[in-house]
Amino acid sequence: MGLAQTGTGKTAAFGLPLLHRIMGIGHPPGARRARALILAPTRELVAQIAEHLSGFTRGTAMRIVTVTGGASLNRQTEVLARGTDILVATPGRLIDLLERRAIDLQDTGYLVLDEADQMLDMGFIHALRRIARHLPLRRQTLMFSATMPKLIDEIATTYLRDPVRIEAAPPGRPAERIDQAVHFVNQGDKAKLLETCLLAHPTEAALVFLRTKHGAEKLMKLLVSWGFEAGSIHGNKSQSQRERTLAAFRDGTLKVLVATDVAARGLDIPLVRHVYNFDLPNVPENYIHRIGRTARAGAAGKAIAFCAPAEAGELAAVEKALGAQLPVIGGTRPAGNAPPPKPAAGRQGQKPGAAARPAPKQNSRRPGGPPAARAPTGTGGARRPGPRAPS
Predict the structure, then answer these.
(1) How does strand 84-89 pair with strand 34-39?
(2) What is the mean pLDDT of residues 287-314?
(3) Do 187 and 326 lie in a common domain?
(4) What is the CA radius of gyration of the chain?
(5) Interval 95-101 mean pLDDT
(6) What is the maximum span of the chain, computed from C-alpha positions, in angstroms?
(7) How far is it, in rounded angstroms, from Cα 267 to Cα 42?
(8) Closest-CA residue to 286 (of 325, 318, 316, 313)
(9) In this model, does residue 289 exceed pLDDT 50?
(10) pLDDT for res 259
(11) Exposed (0-12), middle (13-18) or buried (19+): which is 247, by Cβ within 10 Å?
(12) Are residues 329 and 244 in the same domain?
């Protein structure tokens, strides 16, 4: 199990040793067989992994095949008939192909779960169990992620035997070169605030995250009407549309990419200098993955969160996961929104002595705080009437 910050090269960490072992076999794979299986949660991440591995194998006879939804099943069946050294897939489409007997995994000696915490979450765990029944018991299983919540960590142990756990950095911590901040703003004023931020850096690529597909599309169209070179990717877009939009963003044709969390995992777009959390995520770990789209491979980047009053609970959860309070660059932090202080800081309370004692009492009520704050989210603040804000 490998845990490391976003942008630190996890694909190469599992890809290069895997390629080295397979190259040493010395003969091509059998028909409808795959020597290694790499599972990833999104089509975009599957394509990116295959692109990186293909770069490593250029000039060799290694075969790398991708299978994802949104493409022709018949065409994928034809490609798999020849066999492949490495199969990179999304779980849903792989199950479709297994049911058609287009692929046989009995000779697959390596299973890699990229973004393992999401792959083991409820959204994929049932599909993973179905796939695991087709794999041999004697295999090497590898899991890689930037975050690993405790519950998912416990599930992971059921798929690993005597695992070696390697942490290149504390899990759940963003890269140090990301300059983070929060701007407190009413929901209806977020779009104009985003416009101001984008105009301040007109030549630099920006990634904007929202919670909903409808909201992402509406905001993208609003930005285009204001003259920005913007595109969007989300679950309502076809695979070809998503690929064209990502390609235009990568080559600089588009300066702003508006997305849901479909783009928060693993995507490597070195040009991104700014990440805006237009909506705060419901799952705090997703914040780590979102802002990890900038400051890749040691570069610097900035991440700004827009926090509406109804999102105070989401912000508190994010700051608790980070173990630190985000600097405020606009608006006023609501009273009682401060996350629990770090233990070291709490033990130092010298002069304030008695004055510092109420803080732990307030913190002891924090577990009840976020749910109470979340209750109106999505009914009040998230859809507060406003002429400029997408829902």
Answers:
(1) parallel
(2) 89
(3) yes
(4) 22
(5) 96
(6) 74
(7) 10
(8) 318
(9) yes
(10) 93
(11) exposed
(12) yes
